[in-house]
Amino acid sequence: MCYISRAPNATAIATFNWAILGLGKIARKFAEDLQRIDDARLVAVGSRSLERARAFAADFGAEHAAGSYAATFDGPRVDAVYVATPHTGHRELTLLCLERGIPVLCEKPMGLNYAEVEEMVNAARRTNTYLMEALWSCFIPALVEVKRTVEAGAIGTLEGLRADFGFRGVAREDFDRDRLYNPALGGGALLDIGIYPIWLAQYLFGAPEEIHGVARLTELGADVDTQVTLRYPGGRLAHCYSTLLGATKTDALLLGSEGELHLHSRFHHAHGFSLLKGDEVPPTNHYHRFEGHGYQYEARAVMDDLRAGRKESPIWSLDDSLLLHRTLTEVRRQIGVVYPGE
């Protein structure tokens, strides 16, 4: 039996019930941050392993643990689901929930390619059910303030952007045993971490006029070192770099006609940024510190949307996800990364 909270009753929800599908590292961080929201609770968890589900439920006080994803909804009322499996499971599980009328927060990337994301968006609109891609960076306080600062003209006209994200992965001899290096599992730097610099460019610039990508691939065909340059009206450029070959600063620099804005590391969930205008020395620092990992902000946004009767986020809309995945899919076409079934 499936207990569903539909949007017409969302405003009446006193305590918001969450479920999580897929119980890896990100799911654990999300569950930890969910505990920071007074009117939210985790009530159900689903995994392909009942033992793992029971252990996760015990850790976070969820009353229902399921050894299959479908059985997750055989317990208490669920008001929204966080899909936190690896990329390859996002489409199937999101559609499972949407067809049941259950609102979904789907971990990024929402799908492996534009076609999958389009199918998911169409299902959400057809079933009139809430769906949002978990681009949590949109809701991090410092990132919200950066967007407001740029739009207010604090650095003049935005002229360019550089952002990077890199960490050292496994040794070459272990490539075939790690998800990140296996195209069959949606592996590669682009979808796992390269999505963040490209998201930032879209967040601030909008849709690119031109997309140029180049990458180094493993023998299995996954990208491990990827450079993407996006061109915008007026010739403005966004340089987006991601790598699994070593740790980078993972920061971002915005170049304006009247100054610069430096997003501190790690930029996608930064606690602050610096403004430098003209010959100002030193730069002005702006801090927006928070406790936890930062996932509580996207969870709260979903709850607020549903209580307001919205079917998608006004901050990160379904059209925003479609645009992002159109860009990512074009980059993959250019660099030659192909996933099963494509």
Automatic annotation (TrEMBL):
InterPro entries: Gfo/Idh/MocA-like_OxRdtase_N (IPR000683), Gfo/Idh/MocA_domain (IPR050984), GFO_IDH_MocA-like_dom (IPR055170), NAD(P)-bd_dom_sf (IPR036291). Residues 16-132 form the Gfo/Idh/MocA-like oxidoreductase N-terminal domain. Residues 145-261 form the GFO/IDH/MocA-like oxidoreductase domain. It holds the Pfam family GFO_IDH_MocA. It comes from the Bacteria. The keyword Oxidoreductase applies. GO terms for molecular function: nucleotide binding; oxidoreductase activity. Gene3D superfamilies: Dihydrodipicolinate Reductase, domain 2, NAD(P)-binding Rossmann-like Domain. Keywords: Oxidoreductase. Belongs to the Gfo/Idh/MocA family. This is Gfo/Idh/MocA family oxidoreductase. The lineage of its organism: Bacteria, Pseudomonadati, Bacteroidota, Saprospiria, Saprospirales.
